[in-house]
């Protein structure tokens, strides 16, 4: 934190000092504690949304789905990604740092995976928007669309409104892929550090 010296003239000793700052105030970079708290909240939300997204696959049990054989794979993948994200949200920082071979106070420990989560989420949101807005005449491959957009299942069952797409389904897809990005980021980081050491 920068200190600003205050100078008094000889006759001003008994008067109240008025601080005049002539430079613009800079906003400091977000401290590590705030990044860690925000990261843990985002990890938990994305993980819970991934688990919630897998629920329709388990409830339908493949009966009414256009794709009969892959429902178990999608449900298991969503559950694994969701459980991993929620686990990272509640694990002690020292355990995560030990697994990644980093110092527990390293700012990259949470900020780098958070950036990867944001990138995956943004790309997934755009993909989901394109998938939901595409006309039925395009005949997308259902297996491919369920991999790219897990909530595409909703579009296969009924036609959602534009508001539901942009404010519910696409954000849910973004959260699922954010969890996937988080999982891949931490796994890559842990494995890379392990192989380099």
Helix-strand string: HHHHHHH
Task: Provide the helix percentage.
Answer: 55-70%
The Rg value, from CA coordinates, equals: 24 Å
Name the average pLDDT. Answer: 77
Individual helix count: 7
Low-confidence stretches: none
Count of domains? 1
Label the overall shape: elongated
Strand content: under 5%
Largest sheet descriptor: none
How far from one another are the termini?
A: 37 Å
Tell me how many strands there are.
0
In terms of quaternary structure, the protein is single chain
Given helix and strand content, the structural type is: mainly alpha
Q: Any overview of this molecule?
A:
Helix 1 runs antiparallel to helix 2, helix 2 (71-90) crosses helix 7 (162-196) and helix 4 (108-133) runs antiparallel to helix 7. The protein has one domain (32-196). It is built from seven helices and no strands. The mean pLDDT is 77. With 197 residues, the protein is mostly helical.
Task: Give a nutshell description of this structure.
The chain contains seven helices and no strands. By secondary structure, it is mainly alpha-helical.
Describe this protein with a few key phrases:
mainly alpha, 7 helices
SSE order and pairing:
Elements: H1 32-60, H2 71-90, H3 93-100, H4 108-133, H5 142-148, H6 152-157, H7 162-196
């Amino acid at each position: 934190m920068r200190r600003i010296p205050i100078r008094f003239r000889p006759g001003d000793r008994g008067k109240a000092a008025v601080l005049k700052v002539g430079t613009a105030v800079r906003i400091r970079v977000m401290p590590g504690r705030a990044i860690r708290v925000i990261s843990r909240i985002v990890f938990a939300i994305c993980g819970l949304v991934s688990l919630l997204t897998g629920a329709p696959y388990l409830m339908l049990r493949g009966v009414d789905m256009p794709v009969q054989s892959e429902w178990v794979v999608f449900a298991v993948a969503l559950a694994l990604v969701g459980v991993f994200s929620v686990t990272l949200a509640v694990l002690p920082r020292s355990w995560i740092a030990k697994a990644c071979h980093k110092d527990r106070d390293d700012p990259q420990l949470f900020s780098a995976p958070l950036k990867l989560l944001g990138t995956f989420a943004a790309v997934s949101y755009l993909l989901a928007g394109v998938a939901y807005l595409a006309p039925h005449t395009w005949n997308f491959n259902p297996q491919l669309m369920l991999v790219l957009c897990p909530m595409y299942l909703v579009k296969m069952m009924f036609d959602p409104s534009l508001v539901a797409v942009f404010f519910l389904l696409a954000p849910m897809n973004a959260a699922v892929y954010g969890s996937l990005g988080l999982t891949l980021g931490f796994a890559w980081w842990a494995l890379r550090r392990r192989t380099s050491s």
